[in-house]
Write a structure and sequence with these properties.
single chain, alpha/beta, FAD/NAD(P)-binding domain, four-stranded parallel β-sheet, 16 helices, 34% helix, binds flavin-adenine dinucleotide
């Protein structure tokens, strides 16, 4: 009987396990499985840990989580594996469309995932041998037509095949971070943190009475860090209007904290629309999404010669033109004909900094004013700008785009362009809850968050810390720096033992120098070294390039994993 190793049992590893069991039952086959997962929250992984700080919020709403389906009953030989409810049934979160969307804590979703894993009771089944090894895998090596899995406890395990579902991996430090770490190591009073998480690493700062902290990055992790740092002993948030989440920051008069975030472009996140009624205004029709799929696949699945991304942005621009022109959507007024509007949209896809009165960007507004504008648009209290509309339409198109573009025949450079565009639009499509951005506004208004240095400041090192200098030549000094930037999954930059070993031994290869691992449509790694019978598969973020989207919890419970499991069991001898 074959033995399969699943390395990493976070959400994707959990779903892979469930789908394996289902397919074993359908195809009436047998398998030994060894699961490797070093942390305790099996099924949740470190992103969704059940005991993490309450400042870590999900950016996916309870409403969107209605798409996280449950597990049906699985009957496998003598075993009956009980069904497990869909997330919304488990959390009992159905609500009227006019109510504001609720965004759960990440720990709550973790509880669901961990309970879902436990309910498999997989170690008690008769028909399958499952062993859970709570160790970190450091290497996978081919030995005589099999594979050996080596762990950090100096153990090794013989297996036939391997599935890698290890999610986000650390990447090599940037030159900037390296120089800051070196600088801090030479000065006792200076501190640098390479990661935002866990937030508990900042607990000692609660004892400070007056501190200035620089935060590298202006994305979702920065928001968690901002919330975590300011709400311990330095103050608290109070919502003053439950309809708009308008918030004030009530500071502790005995203590002072100042956060100074900065990024390469200073562009802020745009919150998601307040509720389902508003969100529906940005939603393409089912017919438009089917047509989008057909148009994209007609190129992506067949045309290796496509030389630009027009085949993708033109149909999305077409849908967006219809949505922005819909009289039900309260947009900024304009006198553009449909084809002029579509042309403007296409230009925005190429370059979001173009000047136009329909587009809200940093040419017209300060970062602070832009944040407030986006909040008012999300609340539907201000006219919708074209860029905000495009970001929301793109979010609704994402599942179709991700599916239609995965394992395409497109040139690698073109794939890179598409991924870059998707990443760029994420500040809208992966936007935070309105409440998070109201908290940011409250901190700015209380002078706890300073945006004066947000736009790519010059940073000088001195014995006293880091000196941030802005374009007006103003400067501010910090003694502590936090890196909140989540690096892109560039395979060649990944700095984990397992991935480096697989790369060095030619067992994996990048699909493009700037992207992830090359896999086929069933998740099987395309290796430079093809002499082994054993198969290594990889699902998730590290295969970006082969697939386009992997970064949402819903993608973990999607078709990519289903296809892998079905194909794996079908071909099992
Ligand atoms: C900080 C952060 C916040 C996020 N917030 C959201 C959000 O709000 N909404 C959303 O939809 N998505 C969010 N995501 C995206 C998130 O990655 C996915 O939702 C999901 O967690 C991916 O699941 P996964 O199983 O592929 O990887 P992971 O969740 O990363 O799980 C991988 C598992 O593999 C284990 N592992 C790693 N290396 C090894 C090894 N060498 N040996 C053995 N085991 C190993 C880990 O311990 C972990 O349990 C966030 C991601 C991050 C990093």
């Amino acid at each position: 009987m074959n033995t399969l190793a699943i390395i990493g049992i976070g959400p994707r590893g959990l779903f892979a396990l469930e789908k394996l069991l289902q397919n074993l039952s359908v195809f009436n086959k047998k398998l030994n499985i060894i699961g490797f997962e070093p942390i305790d929250n099996i099924g949740a992984g470190d992103v969704w840990m059940t005991n993490q700080d309450a400042s870590n919020w999900a950016n996916i709403s309870e409403r969107a989580l209605q798409d996280l389906k449950g597990r049906p009953e699985i009957i496998y030989n003598k075993d009956v594996i009980q069904p497990f409810p869909a997330y919304s049934d488990w959390a009992n979160t159905y609500q009227p469309d006019s109510n504001p969307d609720i965004f759960p804590l990440r720990s709550k979703i973790g509880k669901y995932l961990n309970e879902r894993y436990n309910s498999l009771e997989i170690q008690n089944l008769y028909s399958i041998t499952f062993k859970l090894i709570q160790e970190k895998v450091l290497a996978v090596k081919p030995v005589k037509n099999k594979l050996q899995v080596f762990t950090d406890n100096e153990n090794y395990y013989d297996v036939d095949d391997v599935l890698i579902t290890i999610g986000h991996q650390p990447t090599k430090l940037s030159t900037q971070m390296k120089s800051w770490k070196k600088h801090a190591s030479m000065h006792e009073n200076l501190q640098v943190y390479e990661n935002s998480y866990p937030l508990s690493q900042f607990e000692h700062l609660d004892n400070e009475t007056d501190i200035v902290i620089g935060i590298r990055g202006f994305g979702l992790s920065m928001v968690d860090v901002m919330r975590g740092l300011t709400t311990s002993t330095f103050g608290r948030f109070k919502i003053t209007n439950s309809e708009t989440f308008k918030t004030v920051f009530i500071d502790n008069p005995d203590k002072k904290i100042l956060l100074v975030p900065f990024s390469l472009d200073g562009k802020p996140l745009a919150p998601k629309p307040l509720n389902n009624i508003i969100d529906q205004l940005f939603k393409p029709t089912a017919k438009d999404l089917i047509s989008l799929k057909t148009q994209i696949e007609s190129v992506a699945r067949t045309n290796s010669e496509a030389s630009n991304i027009n085949f993708l942005i033109e149909p999305v621009a077409n849908i967006s033109t219809k949505i922005f022109s819909n009289s039900n959507l309260n947009t900024k007024s304009h006198a553009l004909h449909k084809n002029q509007l579509q042309e403007l949209i296409l230009k925005w896809f190429e370059n979001e900094d173009i000047d136009h009165k329909l587009i809200a960007n940093k040419k017209t507004y300060s970062t602070y004013a832009l944040i407030k504008k986006y909040i008012d648009m999300a609340l539907y209290k201000d006219k919708i700008s074209l860029d905000y509309c495009l970001g929301q339409v793109w979010r609704h198109c994402q599942p179709t785009l991700y599916q239609s573009l995965s394992h395409s025949k497109l040139k690698k450079d073109l794939l890179k362009k598409i991924i870059d565009l998707d990443e760029r639009i994420k500040r809208y499509s992966y936007g935070p809850p309105i409440e998070s951005m109201q908290q940011m506004v409250a901190l700015i208004e209380s002078k706890v968050l300073n945006l004066d240095y947000i736009n790519d400041p010059k940073i000088e090192l001195s014995d006293k810390g880091w000196n941030l200098i802005n374009s007006k030549n103003n400067s501010i000094k910090t003694t502590l720096m936090i890196d909140s930037v989540l690096d892109a999954p560039k395979l060649l930059k990944v700095d984990s033992a397992l991935i480096k070993q697989l790369l060095n031994d030619d067992l994996i290869q990048p699909i493009h120098s700037e992207l992830g691992i090359e896999t086929d449509s069933n998740g099987i790694v395309q290796s430079a070294c093809v002499t082994y019978n054993s198969k290594i598969s990889l699902l998730g973020r590290l295969s970006k390039g082969s697939i386009i989207g992997a970064d949402s919890i819903l993608e973990c419970f999607g078709k990519q994993v289903e296809d892998w499991a079905k194909n794996y069991i079908k071909n099992l001898t």
